[in-house]
Design a protein that fits this description.
Layout: E1 4-7, H1 12-22, H2 26-34, H3 40-47, H4 63-75, E2 79-84, H5 88-102, E3 108-111, H6 124-132, E4 135-141, H7 148-156, E5 160-164, E6 178-180, H8 196-210, H9 216-219, H10 222-231, H11 238-253, H12 257-265, H13 274-291, H14 295-302, H15 306-340, E7 350-353, H16 362-372, E8 377-383, E9 386-392, H17 399-404, E10 412-415, E11 419-424, H18 429-443, E12 452-455, E13 457-458, H19 466-473, E14 487-494, E15 499-501, E16 505-512, E17 515-521, H20 528-532, E18 537-548, E19 551-563
Helix pairs in contact: 1-2, 4-8, 5-8, 5-10, 5-14, 8-10, 10-11, 10-13, 12-15, 13-15, 14-15, 15-16
Length: 568
């Protein structure tokens, strides 16, 4: 699939000024300026994140109410239930909060709703469980902001709620005793992008301060916070960057037995980065809720005994193997359905449906289909008497609005700009697919159907050296709003040593003005012929380190390449 190359612009004056102050590689200075880091002080905070820079938790609206209600529960010997969603953000948040409260108070338990029996967020079953078991205070994490009716129902049963959430609030808020959510319009908290686990962490921080407990009481859960930040795809800026930085430090030096066990099963040998949390830890944790019951993810995170932690990790590992099998077989079936559709080439959207597909992986499959056919995609399956599905979008296209425009065919739907879910009656599938295609045809711009690669900067091979690479590594942790820099080098030639390895990857050696670099292009064998044409090519890549036989070298990680334009 051809891609659009978009070279980002930068402010030359600010870049020059920052270069004078920092005395580091100018290309890196231009990337820092693009990311809003344009003064010496901002650069210092960025390169040397400190836990002392975290904002006071008391700046968050309702923090005093939340802390007072918890202290009153401790004094009155009330039973407290820690309730959270079944994904990584929810389960890490619950594991952290449950352990934190357990360390200072003994009457606390946790609850994770079952993805298929109860659905997302606060559930009536969960509230009824709390009532039957004598809980009078529920602390909800990563959910609750949209559960006004259910929290109202809990109130009639004499159960109070403290809501810790980061999703956008509706106009009417739930009748909780405290709502901690920096996205509330009247919340003065300076950083708005915390994940659910991050909001829970702020509540722990405030409690530690109120009870004069050492900082280590809540810093002990930074590995869980970093895992949530990585998995929930929140911006890695401001507080999230500080929390991720120190959380990763804990993952690498002293992780909880559960994370350690997952790393062991994944045979992790090297330093863990955000990407390892995203691709190694997160899928195994998410698989528990997708394939079975996410409660065991919390049990894994709270387990202190390494042997028991390993057996929980093995269950998650096994769920993940099942998830991968379902994911790959359904993706193959879905691609076959698309190829068999005679109208496929003229369509602007993809909607596929099979009754037997596993509900837990339809969202992942939608993302896989977009990699192959770049267009807004919905994957539907049978769920009891209904059809349920997950949708994923392409860059810049508002999926939620498009689905909202087809609501007459749906029983329910929810989501945001890039991802959504829906339920409908089986007999409505064709009508919905046709309506969705019509809306997408009318709204999507032709260029939105071509994937785009954002390139931070054009670079010369002569600039790439160990000093420059060392500074690049200090820009970690990478993630949304602080992605690993992507470079383009123009008029690069193949040295003749490039080859295809394992039938799908390119191991290449290229040079620019007699400076050569080796590199790897994963799944890029289809582009190999461009290197063989003995013409200059333009190369898009990121930089990483190849550690082979104890020798470390900078290598290029190819993202795309094309034949260079002739010199005028």
């Amino acid at each position: 699939m051809d891609k659009r190359w978009n070279i980002l612009s930068t402010d030359a004056t600010k870049t020059e000024s920052l270069h004078e102050k920092l005395k580091i590689n100018k290309t890196i200075c231009s990337i820092l300026v693009q990311r809003g880091i344009d003064t010496y002080d901002l650069a210092k905070d960025y390169f040397r994140p400190q836990l002392a820079q975290l904002h006071s938790p008391w700046l968050m609206k309702d923090m005093d109410k939340a802390v007072d209600r918890l202290l009153s529960a401790f004094q009155q010997h009330e039973k407290i239930l820690v309730f959270g969603d079944y994904d990584v953000d929810g389960t890490t948040a619950v594991a952290g909060m449950y352990q934190y409260i357990s360390s200072i108070y003994d009457s606390v338990d946790f609850y994770i709703p079952h993805r298929y029996r109860e659905g997302y967020g606060i559930s009536k079953m969960g509230i009824d469980h709390a009532k039957e078991n004598g809980f009078t205070l529920i602390v909800s994490l990563d959910c609750g902001i949209k559960s006004a009716d259910l929290i109202g129902y809990a109130k009639t049963l004499g159960i109070d709620f403290i809501v810790c959430d980061h999703h956008l609030p509706d106009l009417s808020l739930p009748p909780a005793v405290a709502i901690l959510n920096p996205k509330q319009s009247d919340c003065q908290y300076p950083y708005k992008e915390l994940c659910g686990c991050g909001v829970g962490f702020k509540l722990m921080t405030a409690l530690s301060e109120k009870l004069s407990l050492p900082e280590e009481t809540h810093f002990a859960y930074l590995d869980l916070v970093a895992t949530a930040i990585a998995a929930d795809i929140v911006p890695i800026t401001g507080e999230n960057r500080i929390l991720a930085y120190y959380g990763l430090e804990k993952v690498n030096q002293n992780p909880c037995p559960g994370i350690k066990a997952l790393m062991q099963l994944a045979a992790v040998q090297k330093t863990m980065h955000i990407t390892n949390l995203v691709f190694i830890i997160a899928p195994r944790v998410n698989a528990a809720g997708r394939m079975d019951d996410a409660r065991k993810a919390v049990q894994l995170f709270v387990e202190k005994d390494p042997g028991k932690a390993l057996s929980f990790a093995e269950m998650l590992h096994s769920d993940n193997a099942d998830r991968r099998e379902a994911d790959s077989s359904i993706t193959e079936e879905a691609l076959a359905l698309i190829e068999a559709d005679p109208q496929h080439a003229s369509k602007r959207s993809t909607v596929v449906y099979q009754e037997h597909w596993h509900k837990g992986v339809v969202g992942i499959v939608a993302s896989r289909l977009i990699e192959k056919h770049y267009r807004p995609t919905i994957v539907l399956t049978r769920s009891g008497d209904y059809v349920a599905g997950s949708a994923r979008s392409v860059a810049g296209f508002n999926l939620y609005e498009a689905i909202h425009a087809c609501k007459e065919h749906l029983l329910g739907y929810g989501g945001h700009f890039a991802a959504a879910g829906m339920t409908l009656l089986p007999e409505k599938v064709t009508d919905f697919a046709n309506a969705f295609e019509k809306v997408v045809q009318a709204q999507i711009k032709p260029e939105q159907l071509i994937p785009v690669i954002n390139i931070d900067s054009v670079i010369q091979f002569s600039e790439i050296n160990p000093t420059m690479f060392n500074i690049l590594c200090q820009m970690e942790p990478f993630g949304p709003d602080n992605m690993r820099p992507v470079f383009m080098a123009s008029r690069v030639s193949d040295t003749g040593f490039s080859k295809i390895v394992k039938e799908q990857h390119i191991r290449f050696v290229v040079k620019q003005q007699n400076i050569s670099f080796t590199g790897i292009g994963f799944n890029m064998a289809s582009k190999f012929h461009l290197l063989q044409q003995q013409q200059p090519v333009d190369l898009v890549f990121s930089l990483d380190e190849n550690d082979w036989n104890g020798e470390k070298n900078i290598q290029l990680k190819m993202i795309d390449l094309r034949i260079s334009e002739p010199v005028q």
